[in-house]
Design brief:
Blueprint: E1 9-11, E2 14-16, E3 20-22, H1 38-46, E4 52-59, H2 76-91, E5 96-101, E6 119-120, E7 129-132, E8 135-138, E9 143-144, H3 150-166, E10 171-175, H4 181-186, H5 201-204, H6 206-219, E11 224-228, H7 242-253, E12 260-264, H8 277-283, E13 288-291, H9 296-304, E14 310-313, H10 315-319, H11 323-329
Parallel strand pairs: 3-4, 3-14, 4-5, 5-10, 6-9, 10-11, 11-12, 12-13, 13-14
Antiparallel strand pairs: 1-2, 7-8
Helix pairs in contact: 1-2, 3-6, 7-8
The protein binds P-hydroxybenzoic acid.
The site of P-hydroxybenzoic acid has 5 residues, from loops.
Length: 357
C-alpha cells in the first residue's frame, strides 16, 4: 500500500503512529518564570494524537529570550513544569520533542537580564520592532559575540538538552531557522564576521555544527532534529546564495545521523521563490520533515512521492486538536482565530472544539 500521512514511521529513535507533526508554534502563554502551567499541559495533551508534537520554540537560557511569556528549558522549575506536559502527552500515546531556541538579535534589552544588549554574529540592527512587555519597540543594534563566548553558548545548548531529557522529552529540535541566532550565523545578510565563524559556508555553518555535535553527544543523534528555513526573509533575513549554502548545510548534517531535518520550504509570507527543495532533500540522507502551508492533499502527495517522510502542520493543529481524525474522515476544519495566536487565555488556545464535542 502506498504510504500516506497515516502510515507509521520512525524518526531515529522516535516512533510515530502517523506522519502528521504538530509544528512549533509560539503562543506566549507561559508565566514570566517560563514554567509551563496547567493550561499549557492541557493544550499539548489535547494534540497528542499527532504523530509527533514539536513544542513552541523554547529559550535555552535567560539571554535566549526575545518575546514576552515564553517558556524556558534551563531551570529546575521549568523541568518540573515540562515534565507534566510530556507525561500527559505520553499517557495519551503521543510523542513530543522540544525546540531549543536562542533568538540572538531578535530581542530587546527589556527582555534580557540586567537590560543588556541582545547578542548576534555581527552588530547589525534588524529592520522592524521587538515585541516587549511594553509593546512594540524598535530593535536595537545587537552586540557582536566574541569567538571566545561561543563555547559558553554551546554549553547553554547542552544544559538545555540535559534539562529536556530530565523533563521526559522524546528528543530535541535545534532551531536553526527563521532569523534567530543560529540562522543569523548561517546567512550572510546578518553575518559579516571575519573570523572562523564568518565568510565561507564552512565558517558560517560552524556554530550550527558545533551545537549539533554537542547536543548529539548528550541526547544521542537519533533523538535530535534540526530546523532550517533557507529562503524565509522573516526577521530581516537574506543570503546571497541560499541554494549553495543550504545544500552545504544539509550535506554536512549527514555526518551526525540525525533523527530528522525539518525544512520550512519557502517564505512564511507566501512570496514565490525558486529554491529547489527537492535537491536539498536528496542531499540529506536521513528522514525529512516538510513544513509550510501543507494541507491533507499536498501532505499525502509529498509523502507518496518520497519528497518528505513526515509533514508538519502549524495553524491546522492550532485550531484542530483532533486534526488527525479530521483528515482521516475528511471532516471540516475549525477556522483559526489569528487574534488569539500570541498571548492571552484559554480562549483561542484550549477551547477549539473536537469533532462531536
Ligand atoms: C514568532 O514568535 O513569531 C516566531 C517564533 C519562532 C519562529 C517563527 C516565528 O521560528
Amino acid at each position: 500500500m502506498a504510504l500516506d500521512l497515516f502510515s507509521p514511521v520512525n524518526l531515529g529513535a522516535i516512533s510515530l503512529k502517523n506522519r502528521m507533526v504538530m509544528a512549533p508554534l509560539t503562543r506566549n502563554r507561559v508565566t514570566e518564570s517560563g514554567v509551563p502551567q496547567a493550561m499549557n499541559v492541557n493544550y499539548y495533551e489535547q494534540r497528542a494524537t499527532a504523530g509527533l508534537i514539536i513544542t513552541e520554540a523554547t529559550p535555552i537560557s535567560a539571554m535566549a529570550h526575545g518575546y514576552p511569556a515564553l517558556p524556558g528549558i534551563y531551570t529546575d522549575a521549568q523541568v518540573v513544569g515540562w515534565k507534566k506536559v510530556t507525561d500527559a502527552v505520553h499517557a495519551k500515546g503521543g510523542k513530543i520533542v522540544i525546540q531549543l531556541w536562542h533568538v540572538g538579535r531578535i530581542s530587546h534589552p527589556t527582555l534580557l537580564p540586567n537590560g543588556v544588549l541582545p547578542v548576534a554574529p555581527s552588530a547589525i540592527k534588524p529592520a522592524g520592532q521587538a515585541f516587549t512587555y511594553q509593546g512594540l519597540v524598535d530593535y536595537v543594534e545587537p552586540r557582536a559575540l566574541d569567538a571566545n563566548e561561543l563555547p559558553g553558548l554551546v554549553a547553554d545548548y547542552v544544559h538545555a538538552t540535559k534539562c529536556a531529557l530530565a523533563a521526559g522529552f522524546d528528543g530535541v529540535e535545534i532551531h536553526a531557522a527563521n532569523g534567530y541566532l543560529i540562522d543569523q550565523f548561517l546567512r550572510d545578510g546578518s553575518n559579516k564576521r571575519s573570523d572562523n565563524y564568518g565568510g565561507s559556508f564552512e565558517n558560517r555553518a560552524r556554530l550550527l555544527m558545533e551545537v549539533t555535535k554537542a547536543v548529539v553527544a548528550v541526547a544521542g543523534a537519533d533523538k535530535v532534529g534540526v530546523r532550517i528555513s533557507p529562503v524565509n526573509p522573516f526577521n530581516d533575513m537574506h543570503d546571497s546564495n541560499p541554494q549553495a549554502l543550504f545544500n552545504y548545510v544539509a550535506s554536512e548534517l549527514n555526518q551526525f545521523n540525525l533523527a530528522y531535518l525539518h525544512t520550512i520550504e519557502g517564505d512564511m509570507m507566501g512570496k514565490e521563490n525558486t529554491f529547489d527543495f527537492d535537491a536539498l532533500r536528496k542531499l540529506f540522507k536521513g528522514a525529512y520533515m516538510a513544513n509550510l502551508g501543507f494541507d491533507k492533499v499536498r501532505g499525502n502527495a509529498a509523502i507518496a512521492s518520497g519528497h518528505a517522510d513526515v509533514v508538519a502542520f502549524g495553524v491546522p493543529f492550532l485550531a484542530n486538536p483532533d486534526l488527525v481524525e479530521r483528515f482521516k474522515t475528511d471532516a471540516p476544519l475549525n477556522v483559526a482565530d489569528s487574534s488569539s495566536f500570541y498571548g492571552g487565555t484559554e480562549k483561542g488556545y484550549t477551547d477549539y472544539p473536537f469533532l462531536n464535542a
